[in-house]
Amino acid sequence: MKLLIEGGRRLQGRVRISGAKNSALVLIAASAISGGEVILDNVPKISDVLTQLEIVRAIGGRASWTGENTLCLDWSGPLEGELPYVHAKKLRASNLFLGALAARQKRVKIPLPGGCNIGSRPMDLHLKGFHLLGYQVSMKHGFIEARAGKIEGNRIYLDFPSVGATENIMMAAAGTPGITVIENAAREPEIVDLAGFLNAMGGRVRGAGTDVIKIEGVSEFRGARFSVIPDRIEAGTYLIAAGISGGEVTVENVITRHLQPVIAKLQDVGLDVAAGEDRITVRRRGDLLPTDVKTLPYPGFPTDLQSPMMALLSLARGTSIIVENVFENRFQVADELKRMGAKIRVKGQTAVIEGVERLYGTQVRATDLRAGAALLLAGLAAGGVTEILQAELIARGYEKVVEKLGALGAAVRVAGDESGEPGAKSV
Ligand code: EPU
Questions:
Q1: Which atom of ligand 1 lies closest to the CA of 93?
Q2: What is the CATH number of the domain that holds 46?
Q3: Tell me, what's the pLDDT at 419?
Q4: End-to-end Cα spacing for the chain
């Protein structure tokens, strides 16, 4: 799929932020633990979520949309303990069924997960956790298998605060007798959401949002209704869109404190930021200023907004430095931005961005979801038309992005759309 962007229009207006992709993906997997009916509200209808639902159905769960963003999941039937490779290879988050199915039936086999091409993404920390809980874990022929031996809560220290490892261990521990303590746990808002959801289903989880999470295992869970938190990365992307296009955009339905590290950087580049509890307005008042960015686990600057930030800094008056500390392969977008006129040098995990006067539209390729978002942002500011190839990667994580940008005044359309109207068709 191709996206065409006619650059040079200032974005203006308000946009409602969807539910968080990375929360919805883990809550869908975790709902299996209930053994009953779960209703999730504020679920974004994006392709990663649809893939996760294919997995739900393939292993014996039932899933249906009962409202635009309301999902009903029914786990009362018997389940397969093995995830099909064909679905799992499409999505890294398929690995989250490891913890969910372990909690539910103590035996699970998943293919080594696929996903965006942003780094090696090993599973060693997840497996260390399972081992310490008493699971026998084996990795053979591209599958990970975990079988409960004598399982019991334990103290698990993570060498790195991995989001996925924290989530998988939380889920498995929720159904493991005794107390599990995860140290150096990830502190992302999505972890707090998962803890809230596990507790709504009858789990006992405390401390989520800090680096020590305590889980008291229980033997019975129940169905629940729960609402997904707003997507801080989608919100950050629209705020950067305001800055790069020289306009004024208000994001609504956000949790402002989840965006503090992003707001601080937007202020550093000279943007006006006005924040209420659940809405943020960004306005450009003059030149963009250079700044330095280091990606870090939450509450540091999110790696998922690193590429969009690189697009923004390409147009700053001076030299900026970005250090990527989370994924080793997240600078591929630099080559594509350079095709649009950006001046970027990459050495290892550091990128030096010398701001230029303007970017030019040309043909570029999305190499991963957030790289695609960065190219879309660059296209909004570039002179002429930008054509993004492999734009379906953007649809993995941004709900109705063509409509939302169109409503803010951008000229973005899916190539091949007969009407030719900007914003006529969704990605
Ligand atoms: N890591 C290990 N060993 C492990 C697990 C992770 O070395 O066992 C390393 C990874 O290689 C990476 C770092 O730890 O260098 C961070 O990985 P983490 O496990 O925290 O990431 P993840 O759970 O695979 C989630 C999000 C990502 C987001 C990261 C970091 C989901 C479904 N995905 O991935 O989202 O970038 O956390 O915040 O929650 C995206 O939305 O575009 C995206 C990639």
A1: 32
A2: 3.65.10.10
A3: 42
A4: 8
